[in-house]
Amino acid sequence: MRQSRLKALLALLLAFALIAAACGGSDDEADGGDEENSTEADSDSDSDEESDSDSDSDEADSDSDEGDDAAPAASGDPVSGGTLTFAIVGGVRHLNGNVQSGLATGIPGTQVNASPLLFNEAYEPQPYLAESWEISNDGLQLTLNLRDNAVFHDGTPITSEDVAFSIKTSKENHPFKPMFEPVESVDSSDPLTVVITLSKPHPAILMAMTPALLPIIPKHIFDDGQDIKEHPRNAGDDFVGSGPFQVTEYDGDELIRLAKFDDFFLEGLPYLDEITIDIVPDPNAVILGLENGDYDMAQAPNAAAIEQFLDDDRFNTDPKGHEAIGKIDWLFLNIRSGNLSTPEARKAISLAIDQAGWRDIVQLGFAQPNVTGIQNASPFYNADATNYDNRDVEGAMALLEEVGLGDGFELDMPATASMLPTAEYIKQNLEDINVTVNIRQVPDFPTWAADTSSGSFDITYTQLWNWGDPVIGVERSYRCDNRVEVVFANNSWYCNEDVDELLAQAGSTFDNDERQDLYFQATELINQDAPVVYLGKPDTYQIRSTRVQNPPTGIWGFMSPWHELWLSE
Amino acid sequence: MKAIAARVAQAVGLILAVVVLNFLLIQIAPGDAATAIAGDQTASDPEVIAELREQYGLDKPVVVQLGIYIGNVAQGDLGTSIWFNEPVSDLLLARVWPTVLLSASALAFAVVLGVTIGTIAARRPESLLSHGITVLALVGFAMPVFWTGLLLLILVGVRYDFFPVSGIHDLDFSGNWLESWLDIGQHLILPALTLGLVYLAQYSRLSRASMLEVLESDYVRTARAKGLSERSVIFKHGLRNGIIPVITILGLQFGAVLSGAILVESVFSWPGLGRLAFEAVQRRDTPVLLGVLLLVSVSVILANLATDLVYRIIDPRIRVSGSTNG
Fold this sequence. Notes:
- The complex is a heterodimer of chains A (569) and B (326).
- With 569 residues, chain A is of the alpha+beta class.
- Chain A is built from 15 helices and 21 strands.
- In chain A, the strands form six sheets. A seven-stranded mixed sheet of chain A has the order 8-9-10-1-11-19-12, with helices on both faces. Chain A has a four-stranded antiparallel sheet with strand order 4-5-7-6, with helices on one face. Chain A has a four-stranded antiparallel sheet with strand order 14-18-13-17.
- In chain A, a hairpin with a 5-residue loop joins strand 4 and strand 5.
- With 326 residues, chain B is mainly α.
- In chain B, helix 6 packs across helix 8 and helix 13 packs antiparallel against helix 14.
- Chain B is globular and about 85 Å long.
- Chain B starts with a helix and ends with a helix.
- At the A-B interface, helix 1, strand 10, helix 6 and helix 12 of A face helix 2, helix 3, helix 5, helix 6 and helix 7 of B.
């Protein structure tokens, strides 16, 4: 008896020893330096601008030639049924994208809410809730013709009043004010016709009609006098939406379960019976869940995960899509800081940083060059703008000597833990021009945001999103009137009235050629002033089980309806 | 009785101090919920931030905010989560039982196994087994809980797929209450083991040392001399006294167990108070964070009171001296 006890204990001891031994090789595979949930990735800009994803109406067959190069093409005819499991890091505050932006609301929100239009990969509007649309010749009126068979999840028909209410709600509450600022009125006298009158031509209005930016919510539920931002029906099992899936279970910190909406206005869609969105606190949980087969699909939480899953033939891991989100990693240079007040000094900093090296080392190669604040897949991206993407230490030194800073100086750089790899990289690069970067580690995002917004930094690393159109996501970083003490604004404190004028003109014309020319000029001027250092555009990789067919790889990526996604098994 | 009443009064004062201190500490931290929400939305409009601050009363002076908060707590209102727009009490209620389940399972595992192997080791202090337990305790105590968690998660959960690695239920779970509890039990094993291992090491070492002392004492020698069986000597005379230090530590460590649960719950996506608190810090969701802290403070104080009471039951000397003094 004693001996058997002894054996049991020895076995336990041995188990401990094995665990201790195992730890040597396995410590951390997952960090990768991502920012909040971000590091990832997106696409290589390229191409496929001619491919036509459709989204057209009765598209039982609706296509899938969204040109997914890396992933195997959807094999065979779509099959209805099945449950897709998806993982997301963080928490979902609610599902009403009219009062809240961001991925966490956008991903489930675009499944439960429809919008007037979709966009294909060539940045062309496509029918969704609106069968057709037209813009008046003077660009001051947009008319949407709605489908007559669209109903909310409670069976109430979707009418022009709901669209008008959604636009009004968004205009008054959405954090992206420029989206609907020029909207003067919305006429809903005909139940199936929406007439939007604008104070000036506003080319971003069409992009603003997409699911990520304008979910159509039921007026009969939300227009009850309660504060829409705190409305109890913004989330919960009783959420009533207009999209292809309806909520069956909701816990914004744990799990959201969605079921196919049988009366969805596109016949035969969606294909899936159910979507389960698991909300996890930590990127490692996503990786482990994918490994274990718990999840069918997720966004790669960091570059290390991309490397890991690229070699795993149980998954398709590719960077296609998400161009409209348009993430760009950059450094804000604080113009208010004495040493960085001259363009020469800022250009010197830009030239001394090996941006290609950052993409290769910090991002493990999962990032693309992006030399302006407009993402490189946009028709308004100017790849030939003056840029500092080729490191030139001697040129940088010459510029510093020109402004009397040849002996070097110090820069304060606040950084959260996930920003440290980039911060260390910048520090090493700038040592070559006698600039000492003092990295000040801060505990979390709110602390970093407080420093960045108040200008308590010399140089700071961030990621900005384009949000579909430069009017929505780009202008904010450069306009003189957006020099405000808020994070993700013009945190460099940059001001050039010529740039303001060009941005204003580009934001007031529907002529794409003219817009392109204006944005080219504006970004050229900005780059000559060098208020920021563009490091690159990190790839947004999707990791998908091979059974996932026709995945959401359009310009909005995961923030688009998954009504055409199907499972092969 | 008087002593207990005084202790309760002390506890109430302590809770009030904890509330004020926690509130002020959170205020000192840079950034606020408005910044966190705006960050989550990548919003850059100052009006948006200003609206958020006004909406959640963050634009009021700290003293006013504190006064409002204490007034509300006194009336049993813990406020509304800034992030989720839900009553804090509802969130706490939903998250408290998974944490209680996790902490209780971890402690039960640690105490039962720890005392057992500690007692076995104490019977032969110079044996290989006894020294092995000392080493085991050292290793177990030295391993940080998050590290142990990740290790078990990768080794037992992923590589060999013995147990689920995340959450409290399978994503596709559906079944009756019995199946539900079985599913929860499966999900509980890794987090409870992770949290329990640290305490297993401590309790085994503590009970070994305590039992060594007890087994050398006169009354145990007398019991043996009376011809009692070894089992009776160990369980009736030895363990009853030897376990007292373990119970003392158990009560004192209740708060530490909860803080360990924060890490374990985050590693295993366990939907408890720890994870809620961790995320509330990230989101500067002050009402939720204060609610969790308040609940934990009360729990720790109650656990310590309970320890005192259990003490009295187990050790008649304390009961007698307590009643004499009281």
